[in-house]
């Protein structure tokens, strides 16, 4: 007759019940919401630089001033041309009026009267052309002052005072560049499997689409260990990249304090589900056997029993159990190397008195 097997002392407790949200975590880059190369629209010698390298500027601030003399001269020439055109138009109008009077007395041929009318129409067209030329000249004069198109931070000046600036095209002289500061964008790539999961959850009504209602995301920088920043997904690309099997996603993040700078790495945490009630156990209580992940529970007769479980994410040292456990189960949390199914156990005090057992 064999001696009765001695009970193994263990610590056990009910799973912690908590409402959680499932997340996916992606690594991306910080980009400016707006970025532009600053180039002149007209050519000329650079006369002034009105900003400090790397400074914050406001939309409309003058950054560079080019030599205005040629543009001012062009305005003068266009103004004189318009005045001459208007004088010719007035003369043509007076001659047409006299021709109308003579034609009423049949003192002038109809052909002469029509010629006067044509002369007036040509003079009016010349006035319209001269007006447009003057407007262009004034625009060129205005463009000798290069302004910031939006609020942001400028880089360093790429030209010196006195340099000849070539303007008027995309290949013109680069003067500096400007990036917006607030907000910034976090751009990352999601796997096509993640994309399909989100779409299917949306179709099943279990999670809203970020295309229809922007999802709130949490953001963490490389020197941080908590999710201190929040943003919103505002763009999902319209196709999967065939080469990488990913889709481009963008989240907009406030940056009032200027902490984020273009080029920084950042992590984005995207919710995969609505908050739901979950069971959690210490991660150390979850073991692996040939069949998968298991935990040991204490049965009513005081023995250990292995339970196959499906696990989820890790939250503050606790592992989410998606299936395989009930709230009333007492999960063994210590002396696991001595435990096998059917082994008698003696339950000691739970390892964490602060953990709230299931009711």
Automatic annotation (TrEMBL):
Subcellular location: Cell envelope
GO molecular function, one term: transmembrane transporter activity
Multidrug resistance protein MdtA-like alpha-helical hairpin domain segment(s): 78-142
InterPro entries for this protein: MdtA-like_b-barrel, MdtA-like_BSH, MdtA-like_C, MdtA-like_HH, RND_pump_MFP
The UniProt record lists the keyword Coiled coil: yes
One Pfam family per UniProt: RND-MFP_C
UniProt key word Ion transport: no
UniProt KW keywords: Coiled coil
Example of a GO biological process term: response to antibiotic
Principal location listed in the UniProt entry: other
Domain of life: Bacteria
Domain Multidrug resistance protein MdtA-like barrel-sandwich hybrid: 35-174
Coiled coil: 77-140
Residue intervals of the Multidrug resistance protein MdtA-like C-terminal permuted SH3 domain: 278-335
Domain Multidrug resistance protein MdtA-like beta-barrel: 184-270
GO cellular component: cell envelope; plasma membrane
PANTHER family in the record: ACRA/E-RELATED COMPONENT OF DRUG EFFLUX TRANSPORTER (PTHR30158), HLYD FAMILY SECRETION PROTEIN (PTHR30158:SF24)
Family: Belongs to the membrane fusion protein (MFP) (TC 8.A.1) family.
Protein name as it appears in the record: Efflux RND transporter periplasmic adaptor subunit
Annotated organism of origin: Sulfitobacter albidus
Source species taxonomy: Bacteria, Pseudomonadati, Pseudomonadota, Alphaproteobacteria, Rhodobacterales
């Amino acid at each position: 007759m064999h001696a009765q097997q001695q009970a193994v002392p263990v610590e056990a407790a009910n799973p912690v019940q908590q409402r959680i949200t499932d997340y996916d975590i992606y690594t991306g880059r910080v980009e400016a919401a707006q970025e532009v190369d600053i180039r002149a629209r007209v050519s000329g010698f650079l006369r002034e630089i009105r900003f400090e390298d790397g400074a914050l500027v406001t939309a409309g601030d003058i950054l560079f001033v080019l030599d205005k003399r040629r543009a001012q001269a062009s305005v003068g020439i266009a103004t004189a041309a318009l005045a001459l055109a208007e004088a010719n138009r007035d003369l043509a109008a007076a001659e047409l009026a006299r021709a109308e009077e003579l034609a009423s007395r049949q003192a002038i041929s109809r052909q002469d009267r029509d010629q006067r009318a044509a002369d007036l129409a040509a003079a009016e067209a010349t006035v319209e052309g001269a007006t447009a030329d003057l407007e262009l000249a004034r625009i060129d004069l205005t463009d000798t002052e290069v302004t910031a198109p939006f609020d942001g931070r400028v880089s360093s000046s790429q030209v010196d005072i006195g340099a000849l600036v070539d303007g008027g095209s995309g290949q013109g002289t680069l003067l500096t560049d400007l990036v917006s500061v607030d907000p910034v964008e976090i751009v990352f790539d999601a796997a096509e499997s993640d994309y399909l999961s989100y779409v299917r959850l949306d179709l099943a009504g279990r999670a809203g689409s970020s295309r229809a209602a922007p999802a709130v995301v949490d953001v963490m920088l490389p020197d941080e260990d908590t999710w201190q920043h929040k943003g919103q997904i505002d763009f999902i690309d319209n196709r999967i990249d065939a080469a990488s099997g990913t889709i481009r996603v963008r989240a907009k993040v406030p940056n009032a304090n200027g902490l984020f700078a273009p080029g920084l790495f950042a992590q984005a945490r995207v919710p995969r589900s609505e908050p739901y009630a979950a069971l959690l156990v210490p991660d150390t209580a979850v073991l692996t056997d040939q069949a998968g992940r298991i935990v040991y529970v204490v049965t009513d007769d005081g023995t250990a029993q292995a339970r196959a479980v499906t696990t989820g994410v890790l939250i503050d040292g606790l592992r989410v159990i998606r299936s395989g456990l009930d709230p009333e189960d007492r999960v063994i949390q210590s002396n696991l190397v001595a435990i096998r199914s059917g082994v008698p156990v003696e339950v000691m005090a739970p390892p964490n008195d602060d953990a709230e057992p299931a009711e």
